[in-house]
Specification:
With about 220 residues, this protein is α+β, with helices and mostly antiparallel strands. The chain folds into two domains: about 40 residues; about 160 residues, Glucose Permease (Domain IIA). It contains four helices and 14 strands. A hairpin with a 4-residue loop joins strand 6 and strand 7. The C terminus is likely disordered.
Length: about 220
């Protein structure tokens, strides 16, 4: 199994402590620390993913549960033409590697040092610490991907910079220990997911550009 390199230090600290405690203090306490170390490492697991859908499909940037999918009252300043939003809540048990929803070029990145409220709260995108990335897709659409820290998460990792060109499903960062990712989409995209759906980063389709249509529409079925 592959792991993100950011996970080695958080896992190594309780592992080393656990071995020392096992040897010199208490085997039971040491075993608990070692189990915690394994759990910390599993949090950073990084499975390979193959994007679903055809041309024009927008895929999920995060693993988790869809907590909002639809029009928005407040549009993100990075892309005022984006009137739709899909929000995905990641629990500590989810894979936390974030991936590109569509192939394109990073135009801008905005970091907001905010609070650490519960990520599933509707206002979390406005008040929580976040990193927003404006992407111009290969088909010419603007979309915004926002990594939002939650009450447990204390670190957002964004590994790309403006000017970077990435493929659909390519890794661009992660958020540690429970959080949320929002995707702002233009109204030329049809949202294909709904609240309550479980989605996987780099694989599950959450939207479809209408100019391309679905696979069924293109085949005439």
């Amino acid at each position: 199994m592959k792991f993100a390199r950011e996970g080695y230090v958080p896992a190594a600290i309780p592992a080393v402590a656990g071995i020392a405690v096992w040897a010199f203090v208490s085997p039971i306490a040491g075993a608990i620390l070692i189990v915690l170390a394994i759990g910390a490492l599993l949090f950073f697991r990084d499975p390979e993913r193959t994007p679903e859908g055809g041309e024009g499909a927008i895929i999920s940037p995060a693993d988790g549960k869809v907590v909002y999918a639809g029009p928005v009252d407040r549009r993100d300043p990075l892309a005022p033409d984006c009137g739709l939003r899909v929000s995905i809540f990641m629990s500590p048990l989810n894979v936390h590697i974030n991936r590109m929803p569509a192939a394109g070029t990073v135009q801008d990145i905005r970091y907001n040092k905010g609070k650490f409220e519960a990520a599933f709260n509707e206002k979390a995108a406005e008040v929580n610490e976040s990193s927003a990335m404006l992407v111009k897709t290969q088909s010419g659409l603007d979309l915004v991907v926002i990594q939002i820290a939650g009450w447990l998460a204390r670190r957002i990792v964004c590994k790309v910079a403006p000017g970077a060109t990435l493929q659909r499903g390519e890794r661009f960062g992660l958020i540690m220990f429970g959080s949320r990712v929002d995707v702002y989409l233009p109204e030329t995209v049809s949202i294909t997911t709904r609240v309550g759906d479980r989605v996987a980063a780099g694989r599950s389709v959450i939207g479809q550009e209408r100019s391309f249509g679905s696979d069924e529409q293109r085949s005439g079925s």
